[in-house]
Design goal:
heterodimer, A: 278 residues, mainly alpha, 10 helices, 69% helix, globular, B: mainly alpha, 2 domains, 11 helices, elongated
Chain lengths: 278, 265
């Protein structure tokens, strides 16, 4: 589509830039919080690339904001979605007129759930267990090799795969977007990505937003809780309602995020004090 | 080494292990690593290694998958091992002493740490809004260290110096509803993160898919990988059905835009 992109185009993002993304991905979970999880870590890792791609200040700020949205993934493979994001941002910066900017968030989101599933199984479920059994079996006899081997067995894959994933993610993202542009399939695939991303976002909302009303009603054997009644109608109604309310409030710009944050925290504490939430 | 110096060194060790997430979630806060380091401070490294191994097994299930918090292994391990070595007891003693402390410390550090991170997140937003990327990076790095640095690194040395009984009774006087309330808030706050994300990716013509993802999980509890697979299959069906009809210039994926009950969107 764009005349600027031809077969031997190498991009403006260099190996050095990608290495920077790798180093900056290390504190990914440093500011993890319940509201948007790894958002600031992701943005922190993307920052130098965005600064390079968007010399105009407004574009740069918009790009930073894009990567301040909720994100969560097994930290050890976070460089894979980061690499893909870098490739997509690069394509967008090349040709802002034709690139669907929202697709960057859509693709990121679509990867969030499945990648975490795989990553958690490999790192927490497998590598950690292997490292632990090696470490504990030696350490229980008092050998210093136990802790050392434990740390190395876990961290060589941690940092090694994290490093490789940066380049794989970028290569994958760049190749796929270039091919799609050439074949004219871009629009269709980006639409598919938006559907996939939104489905995963819905699934994650159901998984991570939690509230219940444990207030009891009825007497004797008839005792039941409001939550049980609600679950009997449609499960997950309350978290969905909460999501809907917050969504509408934000959409109408009735309330700033920081005020909303305090409201939700106060609601949690009041709920615990009076016992209407659990 | 005097008890006061040991207490200070243990505080430094807590601070160091709080850098876990800054250093790539690299497991320096696992009992297997903290045990020997505590042993070193207490003057019996070998005992520290063995106790660390025992506690590692006890905390085997403690990982932060998908945002659920493990008990505070850091203070549990350090205090448990330190007291056990001091009193000349074995690894079982480290466990008995460590676990209750771990539970209390977790409640306190979470009640203070998460709100701090929350506030910093919004300061970072403002920095970005104003184009101050240096301030954003500084606040990002500061946030994690401040949030986890103001509680355990100060409380743990005190607990070590004055003994667990005193500290546990003081800590126990903090009303329970505060920490329960923070747990509940932990379930409410993601609604905000997803609502903000949805502002960006929720387009009118694809809205039903959000609800497909939501209710599939709400009803069945299958993993998000399963939901993603389902979405890919739905897309495949849409693609083939459209292909059979006509190869027009229209987008291949066409979605029903009208759904009932979605008027609010």
């Amino acid at each position: 589509m764009s005349s600027k992109i031809h077969a031997d185009y190498n991009g403006i993002i260099t190996k050095k830039d990608l290495r920077k993304v790798f180093w900056r991905s290390i504190p990914m979970e440093h500011a993890w919080n319940y509201e948007r999880m790894m958002h600031s870590g992701y943005c922190f890792a993307m920052l130098p690339v965005l600064k390079k791609l968007y010399p105009k200040k407004e574009d740069y700020i918009d790009a930073l904001k894009r990567h301040m949205e909720l994100y969560n993934v097994t930290p050890y493979i976070s460089t894979l979605p980061l690499g893909i994001s870098v490739a997509m941002e690069e394509k967008r910066a090349e040709d802002p007129g034709n690139f669907d900017t929202d697709s960057i968030s859509n693709v990121k989101t679509a990867f969030m759930g499945p990648l975490s599933g795989i990553g958690d199984a490999i790192y927490w479920g497998t590598i950690r267990i292997i490292a632990m059994s090696i470490g504990v079996s030696l350490a229980i006899k008092g050998s210093i090799l136990g802790p050392i081997l434990f740390w190395l067995t876990f961290n060589i894959p941690n940092f090694g795969i994290r490093y490789i994933m940066t380049f794989l993610g970028y290569k994958f993202g760049a190749e796929v977007t270039t091919k799609l542009e050439a074949s004219g399939m871009m629009e269709k695939v980006m639409r598919a990505a938006s559907i996939l991303g939104l489905t995963v976002a819905g699934a994650l909302t159901a998984e991570m937003v939690y509230l219940s009303i444990p207030i009891q009603i009825g007497m004797g054997e008839e005792t039941t809780t409001i939550q049980e009644i609600l679950d009997g109608i449609v499960p997950g109604l309350l978290p969905l309602a909460l999501f809907g309310i917050v969504y509408v409030i934000f959409k109408k710009k009735k309330c700033s995020p920081i005020v909303m944050m305090f409201i939700l925290m106060a609601l949690g504490i009041a709920g615990a004090y009076f016992g209407f939430l659990g | 080494m005097s008890t006061a110096i040991q207490a200070i060194l243990l505080g430094v060790l807590v601070m160091l292990s709080n850098a876990e997430w800054f250093l790539g979630t690299c497991f320096i806060q696992r009992p297997l690593i903290l045990g020997p380091l505590t042993g070193l401070i207490m003057g019996d490294m070998e005992a520290g290694i063995i106790m660390g191994a025992t506690m590692e097994l006890a905390f085997a299930g403690a990982t932060s998958i998908g945002g659920y918090d493990p008990p505070d292994m850091i203070s549990g391990t350090i205090l448990g091992v330190a007291f056990a070595i001091n009193s000349g007891q074995g690894p079982e003693m480290a466990l008995t002493l460590g676990i209750p402390i771990a539970t209390i410390m977790l409640a306190i550090s979470n009640s203070i740490g998460y709100p701090i991170l929350q506030i910093f997140a919004h300061i970072c937003d403002r920095n970005i809004e104003e184009g101050k990327d240096k301030a954003f990076q500084r606040n990002f790095i500061l946030s994690g260290f401040v949030a986890w640095g103001v509680t355990t690194p100060l409380l743990l040395p005190l607990a070590f110096y004055f003994g667990t009984d005193k500290v546990t009774s003081i800590m126990g006087s903090i009303p329970e509803f505060v920490s329960t309330g923070m747990d509940i808030a932990g379930g409410l706050l993601p609604a905000m993160g997803f609502a903000m994300l949805a502002q960006m990716i929720m387009k009118k013509d694809v809205v039903p898919f959000f609800f497909i993802g939501y209710f599939v999980v709400a009803y069945s509890g299958i993993s998000t990988t399963g939901v993603a697979l389902l979405a890919v299959l739905i897309l495949a069906v849409m693609f083939t059905m459209n292909k059979g009809r006509a190869l027009s210039s229209e987008p291949v994926v066409k979605v029903e835009t009208k759904g009932d009950g979605l008027d609010e969107f």
